Amino acid sequence: LAPEEIEHSRLARIHDPRRLRHLKEIHRARVGDRFTLGVEGGGIGHGELMSLSDREACFSLGALDAPPPPPLPVHLILALPRPRMLARSLEHLTALGVKQVTLLHTQRVEKSYWQSPELAPEKILAHLVLGLEQARDTVMPTVTLAKGFRPFVEEQLPALIEGRRGLLAHPGMARACPRGINEPTLLLVGPEGGFIPFEVERLLEAGCEGIHLGPRILRVETAVTALLARLF
Ligand code: SAM
Fold this sequence. Notes:
Blueprint (H helix, E strand, L loop, with lengths): L10 E4 L2 H10 L7 E5 L5 E9 L4 E10 L5 E8 L3 H13 L2 E7 L16 H15 L6 E5 L2 H13 L3 E5 L5 E2 L8 E5 L7 H9 L3 E4 L7 H12 L1
The protein binds S-adenosylmethionine.
S-adenosylmethionine binds next to helix 6.
């Protein structure tokens, strides 16, 4: 729920057609059903569905006292994957607790991906919300775009890596991905074709440690999930 959807009377009204469809088609919601609800950036609690039509769902809210689960202190720098994979990666990384994401252009990212409708803010938001709902989280991640590799490395990376451990996921690196981190971390994941040697060199020079996930080469969304699950 967005905070503005809640009235003083502890009634919450939803008008967003996508969420109304989700309630009807996925949850098969009926008046009287009880749901776990979260307020964006706030608590989680229970609510009862009071009415449901094609234009509005109205819930009466109980106390919202459970806090959202703790975030994963990882800023993920993800080379922009193909649109279908982007959607799933956003959902998974959000469910795993990432709160900062940068989508990066690299040599092997297809230029056409930057024109994809999946990059529209409302599409990105929809995938983030699915991840939050799945994990019973309420704190929305921020997603930024870095459309040039050189400007990213020269202008943004020095400030991002300051005070964080930089991990560059690349097959064949000497060190295995660490397990269970609790320090602020920057994690870089490459595109379908991987980082090119020049990019690996620049990222290592900028202070990143190269890490691997073993001998299996994983597709981007699997690698993102496996890496975050190790760091979790
Ligand atoms: N042929 C590419 C290569 O060798 O780099 C494969 C790229 S893989 C499909 C996409 C991204 O997932 C990689 O750039 C890397 O960031 C991550 N990845 C996949 N498997 C990995 C592994 N075994 N170790 C480390 N990173 C991996």
